[in-house]
Amino acid sequence: MSHEAGTSSEEKLVYMANQIAGFFQTMDDEEAVAGVADHINKFWEPRMRRQLFRIIERGCDGLKPLVLKAAKQINQPEDMRA
């Protein structure tokens, strides 16, 4: 049961990240990447960003390329930093 809840939570997070990317996709690449990263940094709590980085580490299942480009500018929660 908890596995299903986790998957649903991840699917929602991927959906939200892709929605943000969709909003910025009409801008030039540099501006779009910065916009996605800025939005996630401002409005996503550390738990959500942590989960996003875990999805990326596992192979980026379902994330748009713009989200992956922006990931380099998204702040990792402190407990994830090496």
Task: Kindly describe this structure.
This protein has helices spanning 2-24, 29-43, 46-57, 65-70. The chain is mainly α and 82 residues long.
The number of helices is: 4
Task: Flag low-confidence runs.
Answer: 1-5
Terminus-to-terminus distance: 32 Å
Query: Main β-sheet: number of strands, strand sense, barrel status?
Result: none
Helix-strand topology string: HHHH
Give the overall shape, derived from the CA principal axes: globular
Radius of gyration: 12 Å
Q: How many strands appear in the DSSP assignment?
A: 0
Could you tell me the mean pLDDT? 90
Could you say which structural class the secondary elements and strand pairing correspond to? mainly alpha
Percent of residues in helices comes to 55-70%
Proportion of residues in β-strands: under 5%
Fold blueprint:
Layout (H helix, E strand, L loop, with lengths): L1 H23 L4 H15 L2 H12 L7 H6 L12
Identify the notable features of this structure and list them briefly.
82 residues; mainly alpha; 0% strand; globular
Concise overview:
The protein is mainly alpha-helical and 82 residues long. The chain has four helices and no strands.
